[in-house]
Design a protein that fits this description.
Number of domains: 3
Largest sheet: 4 strands, antiparallel
Number of helices: 9
Helix content: 40-55%
Strand content: 15-25%
CATH superfamily of the largest domain: YebC, transcriptional regulation domain
Shape: globular
CATH class of the largest domain: Alpha Beta
Order of helices and strands: HHHHEEHEEHEEHEHEH
CATH architecture of the largest domain: 2-Layer Sandwich
Low-confidence stretches: 12-18
Amino acid sequence: MSGHSKWANIKHRKGAQDAKRGKMFTRITKEIQIAVKESGSDPDSNPRLRTAIQNARSVNMPKDNVNRAIKKASESESEKFEEITFEGYGTGGVAVFVECATDNHNRTVSNIRHIFSKRGGSLGTNGSLSFIFDRKGVISIPKNDSIDVDEFELELIDAGAEDFEIEGDLIVITTALEDFSNVQKKLEEMNVEVQSAGLQRIPNNYKKLDVDDAKKLLRMIDEFEDDDDVQNVYHNLEMTDELAEAIEE
């Protein structure tokens, strides 16, 4: 978990410097629309939609945008997004997992294949990285003086939480896939503010590269993230202190 958290920290700081607000809103809008198509427009009975709305609030997405996305997805003639994933390897054999939501399957396949090829990577078959990534729930909450961390941790362990880490002003909680909803409900019962929540693919091992190769790999990751069809990108590059410093220069 420590490698994942360290990377999350770096990405958080980097994101603050070159935030792509429109892209973030687009991703959340798609997630809202997919959730509505999947299980209806009532967040009380649709956990996926409830999480998407929560994440929209955390990035200050206007309420009107959220309501429009829900309304649009509720219409029978609205576009339907297909969720597809890609698994492959980048520079130095680093595993790369790309999650997409698209209204044009062929376009997305072509774009992802092109980026893998252009950046010296190789696209594998679905399931080829299942031994590297575990799907987990990850919930971030703001740390404040009103939270007794030890007591708080014990209560959430009872609800199914697996791991806790303090990352600056955040408490990051990790859960097994099947316990994600239970922990979210527990936080709601405790009236705890959640900054972000979602299912992520957490690597169970990491690969260390020298700074130059790591930068090549990160250029590939950035290119994936710039693609409009890409929702999330995961990888198992070990984020060393040396690399963190090089990125922030």
